[in-house]
């Protein structure tokens, strides 16, 4: 923070103020507002005693530097946890968090709507270490207790679900796990800690793909993991033992993105709701999957637990052939066809969850498309979608 002497108690700032002030110390860097990009591996010590006892603030580039520390500090304040570690991607954040809390012979409960690469971590990597995964219905709520085994050590959540946007009752699942040796984790990329703070409802590990809204400009890959006091030591040790580090340039870009997260996310939310409401009235659209819409099945949970929504949602089209859907997507001028999301640009991808679901059935009634609404004028986006929808030929 810019003007507080080191060691001073922090004021109870609002989130918008924290986004601007957290992790900054201009006095330390000759008055420069932003923490500089510090590149380096070797850190010199003045004496053998200092070298052997690690008395300095930094010991080796992989173990941290001012650029990385500034982002970790800022995110820890925003998340409200005991500490944050950074990883090279959102997926590496998921795998690192799971490896920090699981060991051979453990049982993991993984939500069935999880990001598909997360499922592969469970089915390919964790399985090799004799860690068994059970996928569960995202709508199970407190009923998850019936799936607990003596060796269940972790429950992984994602709210809302990747692509299909089911809302999980996170507080109910956390309450069910309370009092047991079960760690709770959540992928909170969609809402960010600005719109939902998992630690506030008792979640142990809060994970983000910082690639998305934290970076905000589609120019970096980054993962973040925030842990509470219960899990932070294990997380930090595992992170260090795996040799994970992020480039100082990427940490700098993410810290820069953090400063404008509030205003960007508010625009994404407003524009996405405008487009979603318009799509809900289109004759070609069967359903809009967006928990902030009152008609969405998960709206009550979203309204209870979340402070806002992001720019990502999905639509289910009325039955149409694949060539027809492809023509719709190919005709779009303002929506790029690409993976990821959270940047300034709008995106669209077709998807089919039925290819990987195992605990639930995906049968939406028509082709599904995920949209990310960027920072363009929503009227232009609607006009683009309108001309695209004309390409659809009902099946």
From TrEMBL:
<comment type="pathway">
    <text>Amino-acid biosynthesis; L-methionine biosynthesis via de novo pathway; L-homocysteine from L-cystathionine: step 1/1.</text>
</comment>
<keyword id="KW-0456">Lyase</keyword>
<comment type="similarity">
    <text>Belongs to the trans-sulfuration enzymes family.</text>
</comment>
<dbReference type="InterPro" id="IPR015421">
    <property type="entry name" value="PyrdxlP-dep_Trfase_major"/>
</dbReference>
<dbReference type="InterPro" id="IPR006233">
    <property type="entry name" value="Cys_b_lyase_bac"/>
</dbReference>
<keyword id="KW-0663">Pyridoxal phosphate</keyword>
<dbReference type="GO" id="GO:0047804">
    <property type="term" value="F:cysteine-S-conjugate beta-lyase activity"/>
</dbReference>
<dbReference type="InterPro" id="IPR000277">
    <property type="entry name" value="Cys/Met-Metab_PyrdxlP-dep_enz"/>
</dbReference>
<dbReference type="Pfam" id="PF01053">
    <property type="entry name" value="Cys_Met_Meta_PP"/>
</dbReference>
<protein>
    <submittedName>
        <fullName>Cystathionine beta-lyase</fullName>
        <ecNumber>4.4.1.13</ecNumber>
    </submittedName>
</protein>
<dbReference type="InterPro" id="IPR015422">
    <property type="entry name" value="PyrdxlP-dep_Trfase_small"/>
</dbReference>
<dbReference type="InterPro" id="IPR054542">
    <property type="entry name" value="Cys_met_metab_PP"/>
</dbReference>
<dbReference type="InterPro" id="IPR015424">
    <property type="entry name" value="PyrdxlP-dep_Trfase"/>
</dbReference>
